[in-house]
Design a protein that fits this description.
Arc Repressor Mutant, subunit A; five-stranded parallel sheet; 9 helices
Length: about 260
């Protein structure tokens, strides 16, 4: 009987995933399942070895345990983010929201609680890679929202008073989706599905955290936002924009 070849094999054949865990059994489990999906997998037993591997061969994705000796996953991620934006999925036996938020604040792209199924692992890996590869639509070149905020869609850049703001890819996609729907309320689950993937439609803490990130980076007063508005219990809305020239827009006042 012929063995079924995963449909994703062709797309994943050149993808390299670094798996970091001090449990050899877990590394073997993840390696076996990702290799069945066509990925190339390399392993590391702790954070120090992981950082060394990254400097030798930049992987497309890192799957890393949090609880490791010598250098745990959180500290490894903090050091990694000083020089790299490689997508990272953290693994942990802890399911508390505070732990997930800590990982996301350090720059993780996802957080999976142990134990997990091969299907969940594969789904999360594919979703994170899809987000990393997925360019946001660019219906116009530059959008001037007001005297201080501009969006350069071709370069995927946000400018405040002419200075580039450093946004993570997920932050940019979230902002872009809100702007494309300016004036309309976008429900929580819709934003999660569009920006993170359908698998994340119930992960509201991801959305809340990234909305806070964006507000801190683009709002004058993050606690009193004028761009990204909250519609309590429903979702978020980017302030209404009216056209005043070919490449320029201005905000309508937010309703009282």
């Amino acid at each position: 009987m012929l063995e079924r070849i995963p449909e994703s094999l062709g797309n994943n054949a050149a993808r390299v995933v670094l798996v970091v865990d001090d449990e050899a059994r877990m590394v073997r489990f993840i390696r076996m399942n990702l290799e069945l999906e066509g990925f190339q997998v390399i392993g590391a037993s702790d954070g120090v070895e992981a950082l060394d591997q990254v400097r030798k061969r930049v992987p497309d994705l890192i799957v890393m345990d949090v609880m490791m000796p010598n250098l745990d996953g959180f500290e490894t991620l903090r050091l990694l983010r000083e020089f790299s934006t490689i997508p990272v999925i953290l693994l942990s036996v802890k399911s508390e929201e505070d732990d997930k938020i800590q990982g996301l604040e350090l720059g993780a792209d996802d957080y999976i609680t142990k134990p997990f199924s091969p299907r969940e692992l594969s789904s999360r890996v594919e979703a994170v890679l899809r987000r990393a590869d997925w360019p946001a639509p660019a219906p116009r070149t530059i959008l001037t929202i007001d005297e201080r905020l501009q969006i350069d869609f071709n370069r995927h850049q946000v400018l405040i008073n002419g200075e580039r703001v450093d946004l993570r890819p997920t932050e940019y996609r979230l902002l872009n989706h809100l702007i494309q729907n300016a004036g309309w309320v976008v429900p929580h689950d819709t934003l999660l599905a569009k920006v993170w993937g359908y698998e994340y439609r119930d992960e509201t803490h991801y959305l809340r955290l990234y909305i806070n990130y964006l507000r801190k980076k683009i709002e004058v007063e993050p606690s009193k936002p004028k761009y990204i508005l909250t519609e309590r219990g429903v979702g978020y809305r980017f302030a209404s924009i009216v056209k005043d020239s070919v490449n320029s827009r201005e905000l309508l006042p937010a309703p009282a």
